[in-house]
## 1
Amino acid sequence: MARQTHRVYSLEFKQQVVQETLEPGTSVSVVARRHDMNANVVFEWKRLYREGKLKLPGIEAARTSSTELLPVNVIDLPVPMPRPVQLAENESPSTAGNVPPSVCEIEVEIGKRRVRIRGLPLERAESFLQECLK
């Protein structure tokens, strides 16, 4: 049975590959294919870089972790009121069920990128944010 060899990469090569992945719009998978290597290896090198264990010349490590907090601004927006509905004789306003659910807007800005989601029900927005920030 043929024994597979483990490739050893120089520090300079690792730094070059990680540097390529930091360019805006660059895919780790594309960079890995360009160098004929497994993307998981490149992801591992990026993790080491984020943790400060792989230094890039002239670049301060971008330390991030799953416990890092991001600033969040909550902005109250006016909710448009629905047009009045003609109630039946035996219906009261409390039983009509015409109250719209609370809606909100989420805006996330990271660097030059901004994502804005409008019109989400409040409960859906909360679960969406909790899922994203895990």
## 2
Amino acid sequence: MAYQLKNELLAVDIADPGEYRGTRFDWSGFITGVRFAGHTFCVPESLIPGQGTGGKGLCSEFGIAQAIGYDEAGIGGKFPKLGVGLLTRPDAAPYQFFRAYEAEPFSIMTEQKGPKSITFTVLPKDCNGYAVQLVKTVSIDHDRLIVSVEMDNVGTRPVHTDEYCHNFFGIDGTPIGPDYVLRFPFASSPWSDDPGTLDGLAFSGNEVTWERQPEQEFYFRLPGFDGAEQPWLWELLHRPSGLGVRERSKLRVAAAAVWGKGHVVSPEMFVEVKLAPGERQTWTRIYEFFKTV
């Protein structure tokens, strides 16, 4: 079954753990849809069925560049992908986030606390001394969607990784192009390992715009910053409708990136996760939905 949170402005659809069967994104609190004042904000990673890694809406990922314990697992050995389960390393190739791995899923407990809040608890399972309990609470308050994360290292080994939310946004299904503007609270200084992924994008001060609907994927990076010192982290506006979303999280952003293609744009704010045995780390993401006209 799927879950829904609802108030006078927002309706948020959340997948039941196990509905998404991939080995990339966190199975807990996988938000598949957001409607604000009757308007839709979320889209799938790909419009072609079966293409991509199964992302949709707001879904988080741990360790996109390097999974915990992968190098030491050995061929045929297991390693933990937080929020997913114990994965099996099939060969000597480096870890690849887009690859499908054989998985032994973590057990996930779900408790819905009325129409405005739901909590997912990912139970720890030891793997070579790595064991983390993950608790994620998704709630709504007026025009805000709030995702709170609590992580406890209950294993015997330190955990050092990162987490981000892949925000697959496309407002009312409108293609990405000149009608959109993406803003940051400061003048941006983006870069890309592949300059071709910047084709058709324009950067002016704190704004990013599109000259046309992208035909290929676009991607660029931004340096980290202290979100506690900013009014918000980023803001996406569809100018003709006045509909938009901004992230008001007070995070220490370790790194930032923006990915997208013709139907979707995803600002990504990374959090460093660093836990000694017995330690706890918490953070909260806050999304505010609005209409200017």
## 3
Amino acid sequence: MSVTITPPRERECELCGRTERWDDDRDGWQIDGETGDVYCIHEWDINGSFTPIEPSKSS
């Protein structure tokens, strides 16, 4: 059985509200809107309900 790992494409800090999106052209996260608190140790909302692993379907 193989699996596909799907990384998140956007994220939001649960502490300061900063939002970021993944930019394929720059190969990294880019701020999407307000910068939030630049001194915040960001707590990203990519845990809990986000599931990065998807089972591959066999044919």
